Amino acid sequence: MKTTIVSPKVYTYGSLVLGGVLRDRGHAASITRDLSSDGDLTLLSLFSTSQLLDPGIRDFARRSPRIYVGGPVGLVPEIVLGELEVDAVVVGEGEEVVGDLVEGGPSEEIPGLAFRRDGEVVKTDPVPVSDLDHVMPLIPDDLKSQNVRGANVYIETHRGCLGGCTFCQVPRFFGRSIRSRSLENILAEVREMRRRGVTRVAVSGGTGSLFGYGGAVNKEALIELLRSLAEILGPKNLSVPDMRVDFVDEEILEAIRKYTVGWVFFGIESGSPGILRAMKKGTTPEKNLEAVELAHQSGVKVGGSFIVGYPGETEEDYQATLDFMEEAMLEDVFASVAEPIPGTPLAKLALEYPKEDNPLYREHAGDYRALRLSEAEARCFNLMLHGMSCRPVPRIVDGGIYSALLEEARVQGRDVRRVMDLLAKYRGRIV
């Protein structure tokens, strides 16, 4: 059977792995970033709620005679089945599901699956993959030209997260325990990718330092992983961007400085203790600042992500975030409007929160009122501007940068409101 895996615009790591599984089961599998399929069956890999609302994706699903959806959007399959004309949705991890699904079609005997029968949604419980050492992924010829935050591809070293952040789907999708791949399996994969022309790789998994976790951070395992990957790729072609501030120390940061591009990306989210508690972030502004300072002392540059417009965020909370940025002096800043991803506690909170009090809908009446932004959009825009000046080397904001940041804030606000509309549409079935 000829199967086309479609991963719109970006090759997700999961789509490459599923391609490898099907290839090794004897299927003629191919993978593309285009909304096109010449196979007998299509697997559609989706990672973002907004993709469910994309007109191109919706039309593609409607035109495809036999199509299944997988990826993080499967956390709430009722929404996927309601918005896209597809035959089934993989609810959890797909490696041990996809072969039986492709060969036999949707069935209650397959764990981690949702499909319609007589107008009703049938859903089976997912089962986590016990052994993450998998077959060689299907590596498309143009993977080497992909650029995702500076890397051709993000590879997965482990699954799960110890945290419980209300806005994050990782612990809900992969669980709260840590499952790691073997070093040998990872290195074999990267060697093959390098042979196929891939030059820049990022280590993923949510928190890079949890690789090899067994009740405590296994620094030796992480350092050996980075050292070995650097031998294959060269340190200037390896990054391990995503870290929690409570899982780094001098040794880990020294390894990052020595074996990678020398950057970490902390999910700081807010400078307000109250908002961090509401997010169940498990940290404080003081701990965040200590981690930033430790990274700088180790010669590692720091990027930070911030979330604005979280339900309940006051002007004082937002000002605390601006104050934090001025003290931290981050090399890069990413700001986002709080997105209530379906299946997360934030989604439930956002639906219950009074609309008139939600910064996402409240009209901004401050310095940017002439721009006609919501309060959440104005905070996002202002924070991005602030991030340009609160750097070791400030960046001049010209008209082009100003317009680009303003458009980014507006697009984020629009997209999050569309997600809210989607949640409200399915409220009775998912909350």
Describe, in plain words, how this protein is organized in 3D.
The longest helix has 27 residues, at 399-425. 38% of the residues lie in helices and 16% in strands. The protein has 15 helices and 16 strands. The chain is globular and about 60 Å long. It has a 7-stranded mixed beta sheet with strand order 2-1-3-4-5-6-7, sandwiched between helices. It has a 4-stranded parallel beta sheet with strand order 13-14-15-16. It starts with a strand and ends with a helix. β4, α3 and β5 form a beta-alpha-beta unit. The relative contact order is 0.08. α7 (219-233) packs parallel to α8 (250-259) and α11 (315-328) runs parallel beside α13 (375-389).
Key traits:
15 helices, 4-stranded parallel beta sheet, 16 strands, Transcription Regulator spoIIAA, alpha/beta, 431 residues
Strand order within the widest beta sheet:
2-1-3-4-5-6-7
Low-confidence stretches: none
Number of DSSP helical runs: 15
The first-level CATH class name of the largest domain: Alpha Beta
Counting DSSP E segments of at least 2 residues, the number of strands comes to 16
Rg from alpha-carbon coordinates: 22 Å
- By CATH, the architecture of the largest domain is named 2-Layer Sandwich
Integer tally of domains: 3
Q: Which percent bin holds the helix content?
A: 25-40%
Based on Cα principal axes, name the global outline: globular
